[in-house]
Design goal:
By secondary structure, the chain is of the alpha/beta class. It has two domains: 252 residues, 3-Layer(aba) Sandwich (Rossmann fold), CATH 3.40.50.2300; 179 residues, Response regulator (Rossmann fold). Helix content is 31%, strand content 14%. Strands 8, 9, 10, 11, 12, 13, 14 and 15 form an eight-stranded mixed β-sheet that branches. β8, α8 and β9 form a beta-alpha-beta unit. α3 crosses α12 and α13 packs across α14. The longest helix is centred in the last third of the chain and has 19 residues. The radius of gyration is 21 Å and the shape is globular.
Length: 484
Amino acid sequence: MPNREQSEAVPVHRSSRRRGARPVAALVAVLAALSLVAGACGSGRNSSDNGGGGGGTATTEASASGQFGDMASPCGPAASGTTNAATGDPGVTADSVTIAYGDDAGFPQSPGLNKEMSDAVKAMISWCNEQGGINGRQVKGNYYDAKITEVNNAMTNACEGSNFFLVGQGWSLDSAQEQTRLGCGLPSVPTYTVSPQFAHGKLMYQPTPNPVDKMSVQSWFAFAKQYPDAVKKAATMYGNYAATKDSTEKFQLAAQQAGWTFLDCPQEYNIQGESDWKPFLQKLQQCGAEVVYFSGSPYPNFENVLDAAKQLAYNPMWVTEANFYDAKLSAWNTSGNGDNVYVRMTYFPFEQADQHPAVKQYMDLVKSSGGEVSLLGAQATAAFLLWAQASQQCGANLTRQCVLDELSKVHEFTAGGLQSATDPGANLPGVCGMVLKLNGTEYEQVLPTATGEMECSQDYLVSISGPVVDRAKLDANRISTAAG
C-alpha cells in the first residue's frame, strides 16, 4: 500500500465540545445510504448485554499476539504497580468501564437493521476483555435500540444508564438525539454520522469522518482521469428527501472540482419507489448522460432502475457510495444488469482479506462470535479501536475529559489497516481511496489497477461551500450550532 500523506489542516482541539438496510420503507433506504455503508438485516437483540457476550468467544491468534492488524492492541492488564480506582465519571469503577452501543434493529419494517455494528462491538468487547480489558478494567456494554424513529428515547436511556461513552453506535436519525446527548454530556465515538449536527457535533470523534464541508474524492478524480470525456456528460439521480438531496449536492460540488461537468437533467425519484422507472431513464438517455451518480439504497429501487435501463438499452456508468458494496446487490446481479456499477471505497473490501490482516481479523472475530460481517461492522470495529486506544492512554485516570483530550491528538488512524488513514482529531477524511466495479456477482478493484492498494493525494481532499454547508450552521471551529 502506498504511503499516505498527512493532512496539512491545523487540528482543532475538541475535547470539551467536538467539532469538526434494507429499504423496506423510504426512511430506511435514504438513511442507510447516508451512512455510506449499508448493513444487512438480521435478528433483533436484548436491551442490555453486559460484557459484550452472546454467540461464543471471539478468540484469534491475533488476540494472543496483542495486535489488531498492524496496530498494537490497546487492551491489556493494568501496568505493574498501578492501582485503578473509580474516577467519579459515569460508568467507571476500579474494575470495569461501561460503554453504550446500539443500532436500529427494532425498526418494525426492517427487523435487524444494521445489527452488524452491534455484532462487531460485542465481538471487540470480548476480544479486549480476553486480554485484560482497558488497563485492567473489564469492558461492559449496554445496548440501545433506536428503532430509527425512537432515537431520542434511546439517547435518554443511554444518558440515564451510567455509561462512560457511546462507542460504535449508529442511529439513522442522529440529529434528533443531539440536544439530549449534549444535555447529559455523553461523549461519542460512533460508527457513522448522518446529520451535520452530529457530524460536526461537540464531544464526538469518529474513525471515518464525514464532515459536510470537506470531502475525499479520489474516486471522482480517478474517473475524470480514466474517462475524461464521459465525466463531461454527468448527471445525478436521487430520492426526494432532504438528506439525500444534501448528499447529492455535496457530491456534485466536490466532483466539479475533480473536473466533472453536470448536464441540466437531474432526476428526483420517490424514495418509496416508482411504478415505472423508464421515464426517468429516458430523460437521462435523451440528455446524453454517460455517467450517473445514484443516491439511495442498492435495493429494491436501484435494482429496478438497472432493470429498466436494460430494457431501454441504456448503459451509462453508475457511480455510487460505499453502501452499494453489498452482498445482496452482488448476489442479485446474475443477469449482469449491474455490471456498470462503480463503488467509492475507503475501507479495504472483504475480497482482499488475504492482503490485509486487519480485514481478516475483523471477519474472523465476528464470525467466531456468531455475528454477521458487513462494511458497517468493520467501521464499528474501527470506532471501538479508536475509543480503546484513547482510553488506554489515560491509564488509571480514566475520565471522559482525558479520553476526549487523547482523541483530539489522533491525526492518523487506520484501525490497524481496516481503512485508509483519516484524521479523527481534526474531523477530516483521508486522502486515499479505491474504486470497485460490480462484475456479475463479484466486486473487482478497477482504480487503481494494483489490487489491494489505494491511490493517495492531498489534492483529493476538497473543501465544500454553499447552501448544503450553510444549513449546518458551523462556527469558526467547524462546530455545528444547529443543535444549540
